[in-house]
Amino acid sequence: MTEQYADVIIDIAHEKVDKVFQYKIPIELAQAVYPGVRVHVPFGRGNQEKVGYVVDVSGETDYPAEKMKMVLRVDEKGMSAEGRQIQIAYWLKSQYGSTTIAALKTVLPVRQKQKPMEKKKVLRCLSAKETAQAAIACAGKHQRAKARMLAALETEEELPYELVRQKLNVTAATLLALEKQGYIKIEKEACYRNPVKVTDRRENRPVLNPVQRQIIDAVVKECKEGTHGGVHLVHGVTGSGKTEVYLGIIEQVIAMGKQAIMLIPEIALTYQTLLRFYKRFGDRVSVMNSTLSAGEKYDQIERAKAGEIDVIIGPRSALFTPFPNLGVIVMDEEHENSYKSETSPKYHARETAVQIASLCGASVVLGSATPSLEAYYRAKLGQYQLYKMKERPGNSVLPTVHITDLRKELKEGNRSIFGRKLRNLMEERLSKKEQTILFLNRRGYAGFVSCRACGHVMKCPHCDVSLSEHRDGTLTCHYCGFQVRKPEKCPECASPYLMGFKAGTEQVEEAIHREFPEARVLRMDADTTRKKESYEKILSAFADEEADILVGTQMIVKGHDFPGVTLVGVLAADLSLNRSDYRAGERTFQLLTQAAGRAGRGERPGEVVIQTYQPEHYSVVYAARQDYEGFYEEEIAYRELLGYPPVEHMLAVLISSRVQEEGEKLGERMAELIRTKMGETSDLRVIGPAEASIGKLSDWYRHTLYLRHGDYQVLVKVKDRLEYYCKEHEQREQTVQFDFDPMNTY
Ligand code: ADP
Ligand code: ZN
Ligand code: ZN
Q1: Residues 384-424: tens digit of each pLDDT
Q2: Region of 78 on the Ramachandran plot (φ > 0 left; ψ -120 to 50 alpha; else beta)
């Protein structure tokens, strides 16, 4: 057997994770030493015995082996919470490819110990009776503030400093004087920061329907029996009561003395979500997200470890909350892109949740109105338990959907961005004082040019992505730099109506002012939500019916509940179809379905208008019918045919290089290595190397290599081999990144 080495971090204090020390593993401990285990090692010049955590085990070392010290023994205490975090970090590193440090930093997010927050309080030094006497004495001397303070302390032994200053209106000087006289004492006490500023606990609990109860029972039964590690997928139409199901499951999990992680997409953590959880769980629930200060984040981790909270709500990073006895991980809007990390390790929260759950003996619940192809595919294979919620509770019904063919509108003389159907319905809503949401789906599709008569999109001949129009009248490919003058006529049908889709949210707002002067409009996009809390302000203003129409980008379609909205207009549904990305159809279907789900959430039924240049596209057709199954069957057939995820797996290798030829050469050597040296993977598909679709970014040249195989672990092996190769041939000004089942094209 070859010599094995353990990478050990001596001090788990988060700021020290950068320092890793290597030790030799004695033969008799070979089985017992693995990532996450605590070991005793000699440390420093005096070889003092210290406890450390193993973060990696390998057969390689950069040190002269004879100089290396030995691991002394394995700690008997069993796997600690920290050890489990390290196990997860190791798993991230090996499954997704990253450095040990980057993986550790991912699971131990707040690296610097934060100063505790201090709360001041006022204590009385005398007995209740003596304090009362002192109060009377002060009153006699017309020292009213002092008298007020002492009278308040007659019934309470201590009072919060803030309350004394604000409610009792006693100045700091007065308090100091009282302290000098020996009547009171001002003390400081360390406490955790609590980012939850909600206090309303009045809850209107609906009576659960049989479907909801059945799902809750099934998941809870699994938690109780300890047949853990199961994954449950709840496919429920928008507004079908999924959140009630999550609340019900979490409630019973807490009753078993366990804790819960509630994942939501970053953008959806609204006051509304938090409020529902707070009403049910009070101060036992907390949040974690990027708007928290470092101190707040640190304290939430400490609160979780100390057993002060039972539920954490947050985006994907909340997965790494170190609860002592995790019972369930719930992942709402499971299909959302933001669950995939875009920095190394490029992990997906779904897969990571499943891994964490199996390590901790917890269950996983995934929920969505439009499950990802990945999740649904696995449910169909029987790997996940599938539940369906097809109806909304109460009188609320799914909306009626109309499709408007924008080519036809133009042919019949309507050049407005509002088709006739949408305009009529908007007028009707304004007169009935009901609300409308207009949705413009335009993530990254600025300025593409299409024919208004036939729908033809001007694309780059080299990249299969749409060209963008520039002011000087040229069409440019943002990816490869290809340029061409904008033709006078459509190359397909010779129509002169070849133009850029200029309608940004701002232009939509202007058009509303022009065509519906009496309407009150709110706009929500990247520009209007830049400031902290502006997002919340717009949403609550709209919820309070301060506006008739809300115009926005995809950020408005995420899970909000506006009972006053009875009309949703999708201005140009196909904007998200014009991408050379195998997920474009899925994304379009999801956005359209979710957008449609915003209509008619209250008592009144809703209507949806989908405007599009491609009314025959299957994503549009199935979304209009709210037919997930139909869409899934068509989409999965396409993925099967082309060998795309989830049917096969894909590994993207991104090579960034200062010198163009160097990057290209490295890509070629990698492809060669895979073809010649990895015989066992002969059925591996290797595509490239090719220039990345964004070929150059901040003067770094980018090349990609795409690999596909049915078995994920084969790709992990390839990644390991390539990583090793890169380490041996390391070059300055060159980086290699791995991305499994990528969500974006490079
Ligand atoms: P989802 O998470 O699927 O969008 P929610 O749980 O938010 O659905 O439920 C949508 C609305 O229906 C909410 O206002 C919720 O209070 C209500 N609701 C949920 N379950 C029931 C039920 N069993 N009976 C009555 N109303 C319910
Ligand atoms: Zn045309
Ligand atoms: Zn191009």
Answers
A1: 999 999 988 876 677 889 999 988 998 898 888 899 999 99
A2: left
* CATH superfamily membership of 649-740: Ribosomal protein S10 (3.30.70.600)
CB–CB of 690/654 below 8 Å?
Answer: no
Query: Which CATH superfamily is 5-107 part of?
Result: PriA, 3(prime) DNA-binding domain (3.40.1440.60)
- If you measure from the C-alpha of residue 724 to the centroid of ligand 2, how many angstroms do you get, rounded to a whole number? 51
Q: Which CATH number fits domain 400-445+501-639: 3.30.70.20, 3.40.50.150, 3.40.50.300, 3.30.230.70?
A: 3.40.50.300
C-alpha to C-alpha distance for 476 and 466, rounded to whole angstroms: 9
Question: Average of pLDDT values for 134-157?
Answer: 90
pLDDT value at residue 503: 61
Nearest partner of 552 among 562, 225, 356, 712, judged by Cα: 562
Q: How far is CA 352 from CA 80, 333, 340, 422, 633, in A?
A: 19, 16, 10, 43, 27
Distance from the CA of 55 to the center of ligand 2, in angstroms? 59
CB under 5 Å of ion ligand 2: residues = 451, 453-454, 456, 490, 492-493, 495
Is residue 327's pLDDT more than 80?
A: yes
pLDDT in tens, 448-468: 788 878 888 888 776 556 777
Spatial strand order in the sheet of 549-552: 400-405, 607-612, 565-570, 435-439, 549-552, 521-524
CB 557 within 8 A of CB 268: no
Fold of 210-389: Rossmann fold (3.40.50)
DSSP E strands, 273-411: 285-287, 311-314, 326-332, 363-368, 385-389, 400-405
What separation in Å is there between the alpha carbon of 306 and the centre of ligand 3?
55
In ligand 1, which atom is closest to the CA atom of 204?
Answer: 16
Q: How far is the CA of 262 from the centre of ligand 1 (A)?
A: 17
- 15 has pLDDT over 70: no
Strand 326-332 to 400-405 pairing: unpaired
The CA distance from 281 to 278, in Å, is: 5
3-state secondary structure of 662: helix
Model pTM? 0.83
With the most atoms of ligand 1 within 8 angstroms of its CB, the residue from 216, 237, 244, 262 to mutate is 244
| Sequence-ordered strand ranges (E) for 333-448 | 363-368, 385-389, 400-405, 435-439
Give the residue-averaged pLDDT of 77-90: 83
Report the atom number in ligand 1 closest to the C-alpha of 212. Answer: 23
Q: What per-residue confidence (pLDDT) applies to 3?
A: 83
User: Residue 415 has which token pair?
Assistant: 């050049």
Q: pLDDT at residue 446 above 60?
A: no
Closest approach atom of ligand 1 to CA 236: 3
Alpha carbon distance 121, 106 (integer Å): 37
